[in-house]
Amino acid sequence: MSLHDDYAGFLAKFEPKRTTDDCYTPPHVYDAVLGWACQEYGLSPSDAVRPFYPGGDFEAEDYPEGCVVVDNPPFSILTRIVRHYNERGVRYFLFAPGLTTILSAECCAVCADCSIIYDNGAIVRTNFVTNLDRARARTAPGLYQAVKAAMETAKAPTELPKYVYPPEVATAAMLNRYSHYGIDF
Hints:
6-stranded mixed β-sheet, elongated
């Protein structure tokens, strides 16, 4: 073990531990989910509220009349959140972990099998739960396609500009190439 590895291990002890509760939704994915939910359930995007943010308290949140929570809550307390909203008549369409028993929730499980790369880099199989649907469980191929398209758009490489320099200008890339080919400059 090198000194560097030992030091990196020492620093790692102070890093906050990441869980599925730390999976913040990329805006393009949220927009795709919101768009699908609005189309599917006749919602207005202006009625959507997002009470789940660092330091937020969903239980103390003031939910306007007619609002709908469309958000990615902390998965570790999803059952508590669903119960809270059901008891208070708050409409919701929530992200949910795809590999756990979302069917045990007191609502409709929307199984879309979305593979989402969250802002922290975690790739999480994601489904959804809602009280907007009368079914106990359902599939959502359109939602799957919307999220998949959003993820592909995000992965699409952006074309970087190509710079052309006159021959008398030395660049790091050129000098790196010289070293690679054994040219001492």
